[in-house]
Amino acid sequence: MKELMSVYSYAKHFKKDMYKAIGFLTASIILGVIPYYIIYHIIMRFTEEQAMSVLYLCSMAGLILICLLLRTHTQYAGLSASHHLAYDTLMGMRKRVADKLRMMPMGSIKKHSTGSLKKNFVENIEDMEIILAHAMPEGISNLLTSLIIALTLFVLDWRMALLALAVFPIGILPVLLMIRDASTRMGPYYQSSKEMNENIIEYISGMEVIKVFNQTTSSFKKYMTSVDNYKTSTLDWFKVSWTHMTVYSIVLPSTLLFLLPFGTMFYMDGTLTLGTFVLCILLAMSMGLPLMRLVEFLPIFPNLQQKAQKIEQLFDEEEMVDGHSHAAPQHYSVSFQNVAFAYDDKEAIHDVSFTARENTVTALIGESGAGKSTLAKLLVRFWDIKRGEIRIGGINVKDMTFETLMNSISYVSQDIFLFNTSIMENIRMGRPDASDEEVMEMAKLAQCHNFILNTEHGYHTVVGDGGDKLSGGQRQRIAIARAMLKNAPIIVLDEATSATDPENEDKIQLALSGLIQGKTLIVIAHRLSTIVDANNIILLDKGQISAQGTHHELLALSPLYQKMWQAHAESMNWDIATKEGSN
Ligand SMILES: Nc1ncnc2c1ncn2[C@@H]1O[C@H](COP(=O)(O)OP(=O)(O)OP(=O)(O)O)[C@@H](O)[C@H]1O
């Protein structure tokens, strides 16, 4: 229950809307009970053989009509307040999700599969609507109404009140059994639904691999098994709950079961007047529905409790602490000082120290898995380091606000992601206030203008999910244009031209060197020929710096660099040889 109540903390006007919803819904139920009281009066006048004018009967009918109209109106007002509260809360939760994801280290986000994140942040939050808009306000108003009617019955005749309420313990028993079963059955139900979500996303995302390796049958089987498990656990739960639901939905509204025979007995032996008897019957009948509605919501709670728990678990996950310094650094030299970092328990970076100075190009090189991309990601604070310091212009990146840090760096990662919108808008994300002309200017420098003009709608061509309507090299060049448009003082390019043909790569390098004035450029590259002119080359080996210096210094001093350069030169010769051979 604590988790469920905490859900409301995301609503802006929780109390005001909640009171309004409960107030109006209670009023609507009471307005539904008043006609019973009016009917009681008419019956009593009949039995006492009092004269009733047509005017009296018409005014009573009119009163009943007014009650019913007011009931509809208050019900509408109550539900409108409860839905307002519900969607206000859901909006608060979704905003919290967006903030949470921004503040979580990438490692913590990637620990969860896309399927389970989607389930948690989309479906589970959506499912909270039923409790926020219905279960809570309607449950409380039905409880209040049942209590008011029960109290009136006690005031009229305590024996009749007990007789009317006698069905309650019998009716509530199956509900309690359902809640008990739910605690054991909800686990497998929830797990199977999570697995199904994960498998659907994996099946769709992995379709290319599935087709190429002809894994359609086995992957489809995995997906279908999870769908089947979900079906089994859901039906399993329904099989149990249907029996319980049938019992309580029959028993709970049967408030006359004991009241009618025993009430007749009391009337016969003269301990109950006819008037009280009739009124008790009408009140007991009007109590059946709110009682039933009240109990109906109870079994929903364990299910939603599980979901609220899962949402809260994610919200409780570790966050990175935003720095306080809004001040832009005085200069943009980047320095790593004795930096160590571990993914989970495995240390990937050990004691790394180097400086990338302003107005220079620093290249990070090394074999695959040496830790180059990790260093780039640590600079943009996708993760926090374990030991040491990373400073920009002398300020520790942890002390800077994320906004200041992100304004300082243009980062092009290995995994280029483009949004499913036009090429123009994808590039403009680098600087949202850039004009079309500025976007095109950058596209020209990043060598994408010509291919963009050849696409179906030019700059207005929509690039597809993640940019999948473009080639890898085209995506890379758009990402470079986006980063260049941002015009941040530090540019980090992680294999940013690896899928680009050598001719375009040279042109991009030229454009970058034109833009480097006053900037700090850090490049990660496999092709050593692209970084021979770098001012400083950092050679990484198994997460450590093996050597650093210019190309000539490293050639003279580092056996590892000599080996890498030799391998590179051989591959270039082989490349030239095969090209000549084919001509
Ligand atoms: N998200 C992650 N979780 C756990 N380990 C990781 C993760 N990313 C990288 N690693 C590990 O950290 C080490 C350094 O990886 P990194 O990606 O930085 O290497 P790299 O030099 O950029 O390699 P490449 O040239 O192939 O891109 C590797 O051993 C890798 O397996």
UniProtKB/TrEMBL annotation:
It is a multi-pass membrane protein. SMART domains: AAA. Pfam families: ABC_membrane, ABC_tran. Residues 21-303 form the ABC transmembrane type-1 domain. Residues 334-567 form the ABC transporter domain. Keywords: ATP-binding, Membrane, Nucleotide-binding, Transmembrane, Transmembrane helix. The chain crosses the membrane at residues 21-39, 51-70, 162-179, 247-268, 274-295. GO terms for molecular function: ATP binding. The keyword Cell division does not apply. Its main location: membrane. The keyword Endoplasmic reticulum does not apply. It is found in: Cell membrane. InterPro entries: AAA+_ATPase, ABC1_TM_dom, ABC1_TM_sf, ABC_transporter-like_ATP-bd, ABC_transporter-like_CS, P-loop_NTPase, Type_1_exporter. PROSITE patterns: ABC_TM1F, ABC_TRANSPORTER_1, ABC_TRANSPORTER_2. This is ABC transporter ATP-binding protein. It comes from Paenibacillus arenosi.
